[in-house]
Amino acid sequence: MPTPVSSPRLPALGFGLGLRVEHYEALLERPAGVDWLEIVSENYLVPGGLPLRWLERFRERYPLVMHGVSLSIGSTDPLDEGYLDRLHALARHVQPAWISDHLCWTGVEGVNLHDLMPLPYTEEALAHVVERVRRVQDRLGRRILLENVSSYVAFAGAQLSEWEFLAAVAERADCLILLDLNNVYVSARNHGFAPLDYLDGIPAARVQQFHLAGHEPGERLLIDTHDAPVADPVWALYVEAVRRYGAVSTMIERDDHIPPLPTLLDELAHARALAASVLREAA
Amino acid sequence: MSANLRALQQRMAQAVLDPRAPRPADILGDARAGADERLDVYRHGYRLRLAEALRVEFPGLARLAGEAAFARLLAAYVEAHPSGHYNIRWHGDGLPAFLERAPPWRRRPALAAMARLDWALSTAFDAADEPALARAELAAVPGDAWPALRLELQQALQVLPLAHNLEAIRRAADLGEAPPRLRRRRAERALLAWRQAHAVHYRLLDADEAVALAAAMRGEPFAQLCERLATLHAPASAAPRMVALLQAWLDGGLIRGWRIADG
Fold it and tell me: Which chain B residues contact residue A219 at CB under 8 A?
């Protein structure tokens, strides 16, 4: 599907990886097939030292995007102004192609749960998030991307589905979407919805990036661990996503049990081949 | 505005932080998994993530306490102190003080001291970058200016008093070797922790170096540093010793600058 003319989407970067310490040396060599890197913003929101030195090296070699975990856009605590200041300063330095975080809350009353807590999908929560996304975007001077999270609980009183909520946030706040296809799959299994309904409900013009990752198979609930190869059903969902949204910047995200780089390069090459075949089919 | 959302978040946070707190009634269960099982994913994840993050920051403490006791003390700390910082590793900031005052850990003061050592090294790792003064820059200071010269030391430099051989236990952890037995020293020693360029270092200080360095950190002028050394050495050896210390500090990148000031 071609990108609509009025799309707020930024130019696509191709196929990338999440930058992890284990791969610093290997990625400096600019292995073939890695078009861009995603950094975890918090790892570089530090006063100085080795992390920032490494960042300099990657900044010279790759297009970068910044991915945060602490914005807590859905919390009812005030936005953390100190965090936003530091994030903005890092962005001025890194000049990322874009900045993303998660559609969730991470704490309340000053406590940080260090988790991506799901929101209740209500009109009240929607209005709350939309207003905060607008403020963050004004502050950073750009559209941000919000990512769907894996979740294990749903709350009574929901007025929208998760995808209706995500789509409404993106449209009303005029932000972009980072679609984690593993998270779509995990949440679909945990809550019993159809992942294709989810994909059908997301506005193509706002999908800026995909995450591909693995999860831990559970007997009853699937746990999103991001520590395993991309599972077959997630690859299948990726094909469906490319059919719907076209050439979207795609990234393998591995957070734990980090394998040697060639293993991830193989997965990334597989993603590239799948996307190419879908796009050829569509042409 | 957002009152229902806020109340829900408070109930959820309370339920995650306190496993004895009631499960929020608005969590839905279904045939796949009940509401309790679903909430447990978050309760378990909170504890696991914090313990994993702290484990990385306190390798010396892990060696000293032993695996089982280390897991217990991390769990006790996480239960007693909810995290307040967005960077999960900075929750380690409160662990030394917790071990100093919480039973049963406070009965083994070496645990809190080791936690302080680990934390000093952890914070030095990504402390602000600072310039290191070159020998030639200090050599250019005119001779008559030296008595009033004050050294400016690295902001991230820390000196810790050690009653035990904790540096040897941490060193063993760094090298992946079996740690030596914990030994109480006859007299306390000072440990210096600092960063040179991008590498974190630590070493014990001799008694006279500890005195001179503490005086330099307080901003005392060079003449006073020499006087302090003169009380610890024979008259003929105090000056050469001061020169040797100064060279060691320069070579270690401890000095970021100097200024001439009276008073």
Answer: none
Residue B50: its chain A contacts at CB < 8 A? 114
Residuewise pLDDT in 10s, chain B (263 residues): 699 999 999 999 999 999 899 999 999 999 999 999 999 999 999 999 999 999 999 999 999 999 999 999 999 999 999 999 999 999 999 999 999 999 999 999 999 999 999 999 999 999 999 999 999 999 999 999 999 999 999 999 999 999 999 999 999 999 999 999 999 999 999 999 999 999 999 999 999 999 999 999 999 999 999 999 999 999 889 989 999 999 999 999 999 999 997 65
Residue B130 domain flag: no
Query: Complex ipTM, two decimals?
Result: 0.95
Q: Could you tell me the end-to-end alpha-carbon distance of chain A, in angstroms, rounded to an integer?
A: 9
**Which chain B residues are Cβ-neighbours of A125 within 8 angstroms?**
2, 5
Same-domain check for residues B139 and B254:
yes
Q: What amino acid occupies position B146?
A: W
- What pLDDT score was predicted for residue B127? 95
Q: What is the pLDDT of residues A167-223, one digit of tens each?
A: 999 999 999 999 999 999 999 999 999 999 999 999 999 999 999 999 887 778 999
Q: Measure B8 CA to nearest chain A CA, in Å.
A: 9
Do residues B194 and B108 both lie within one domain?
Answer: no
Q: Which residue stretches of chain B are H helix?
A: 3-17, 35-57, 59-65, 67-80, 95-101, 109-125, 135-139, 166-175, 207-217, 222-230, 235-251
Residue type at position A194: A
The interface residues of chain A toward chain B in range 235-264, judged by CB-CB distance below 8 A, are none
The two structure tokens encoding residue B101: 């005052």
Q: Please report whether residue A67 resides in a domain.
A: yes
Considering only CA atoms, which of B98, B100, B102, B78 is closest in space to residue B88? B78
Min Cα–Cα distance to chain B from A189, Å: 9
In a domain, B70, yes or no: yes
> Which residue of chain B comes nearest to A123, CA vs CA?
B2
- Total length of chain B: 263
Given B8, B30, B198, which is nearest A120 (Cβ)? B8
Q: Which CATH number fits the domain that encloses residue A235?
A: 3.20.20.150
Provide the residue type at B58 as one letter.
F
- Cα distances from B10 to residues A79, A239, A241, in angstroms, run 16, 40, 36
Chain B residue set in contact with A, beta carbons under 8 Å: 1-2, 4-6, 8-10, 12-13, 16-17, 25-28, 30, 32-33, 35, 37-39, 41-42, 45-46, 49-50, 53, 82-88, 125-130, 195, 198
Residue B119 sits in the same domain as residue B140: no
Stretch 52-81 of chain A: residues touching chain B, C-beta under 8 Å? 52-53, 70, 72, 74-76, 80
Is residue A119 within 8 angstroms of chain B, CB to CB? yes
* Full domain range(s) for residue B105: 3-125
Same domain membership, residue B206 and residue B99: no
**Full residue range of the structural domain in which residue A273 is found:** 15-282
